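Standup notes
- DV: blocked on the single-chain target, sequence here:
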Amino acid sequence: MPKTPSYKLFKLVKSLSGPEKRYFKLNANDKWGGEKNKYLTLFDAIDAQEEFDEDALKLKVYEGQAIESRKYSELKAYLYDLILKSLQGYDEKSSIEYKIKSLLKSVKVLYKRSHYEACEELMVKAKKLSIEYESFVHLLEILNWEKQVAFTKEDIAFLDKELDRIDEEEKKCLNQLRNLSIYKNIFYQMIVSIRKDAVLRSEEKVERLMKMMKHPLLRDVSEAQSHLAKVLYHRVYGLYYYSISDYKNFYESSNLFLKKIESKPHILKEDVSDYISAVSNLILSCGLINRYTEVRRNLSKMLKIKPITKHDELRIQRQYYAFKFNLCNFTGEFEEGIEALEDHIKARKKYGEETFQTGSFYLQYFNIYFGAEDFEKALENLNAWLNLPKSIERQDLQSLVRILNLVIHYEMGNTFLLEYLLRSTYRFLRKRNRMFEFEKRVLGFIKNSNKIYTNKELKKAFIILKKDFESLSQIPSEKAMLQYFDFIAWLESKIEGKSFSTVIKEKNKTGV
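- DV (later): unblocked, structure below
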């Protein structure tokens, strides 16, 4: 029997939901007549551990007996397979897809034994479910079985009457399958294009997206031949509008996306992943157009989503906190943000740093701590982001974080360090094909700041930089960089002598 790495088994056990664990143990008890054995002992020992500890597991399983490495490896491998088989059985009881597959397996079993009428009864059930849940692949298989059973029965009358109908249904099903596949490909292509640059800033990248949107199937929602295809249609438009900073249309398309998903609650019970995305998009769009009451309402909606898988549970937690932090940053409620951040750190420990994707939160942590004027913590999280492995998804954010690094050190009064950081940032930005006006203005201000000796001169420099940023905010490629941190509010706080949080609160009083 092949060896199973201990941590691989540990991760599988820890990923199980409460109902999945109970299902496994019930089956295991039935299998061994309720007798406690090493498999269940190992399972319980892993389940009880918060952090992986191989030596502690061995001690628990063998209770002072001699440990044979080969037998321990076989024990792990066997337990791993048992859990997988248990999960298959669990899914068969809870998933429509497995129910359809099970019905079709039974059709095959009965067909081999010439129970054709029983086959036809099961085919009717399977077909109804396949149509209702848009399981096109299974529907094609059922249509083939209709012909196969009729041919074997030598039911020529049925074939004479129904062949044209079956042929039309197969054509429709194939078209729906192909139609859905094309929408999926458009969606994935757009995701890849967007993720290459976290902030779309160059005209050629926007043009590339606009070219994608000229696809014939995106002319109108009526081009989508199924519920699932229509869901993808609205999702693609949402992505597009968000990427070109058309937030009003992003909000409208996000509402359509959510309504379309909610229109088929029976499908929603099978898979909530798209539903999580739809609620997330709506929350984000509400925030971008200052509909903060709607943001709070939909954050509550997010927490009410019943996860089906462990992945769903993690996504709900990640998305909830990401938007909660955004809300606090947009409204200036940084004390509320600190409370949410502390809860989030507890959630990270519960789910594990590895699975919780902590890196994606560092910039939000920075904003919360900066707004709360805890600059040491803000810098700590900015450095944590800079120390992340470089990836294709973080290319444009690299320049933003370096600009924020200059801002935080300026705020902390680290004059001598600023000179070094300024040179380093210049070198980094020059390696790229283009330096944007936003970056030039910040670098120019920091460079000249050590030549300013009076408060009056400093205030004048802040006013000039604020006016520059207000002009740049009207340019899409420049505006994108102002979304992650409110530079204009920071400059206004310096000009007015107010706290950063006060300026943001006053600025967003109009949020509905």
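- Follow-up: DSSP finds 27 helices and no strands in the chain.
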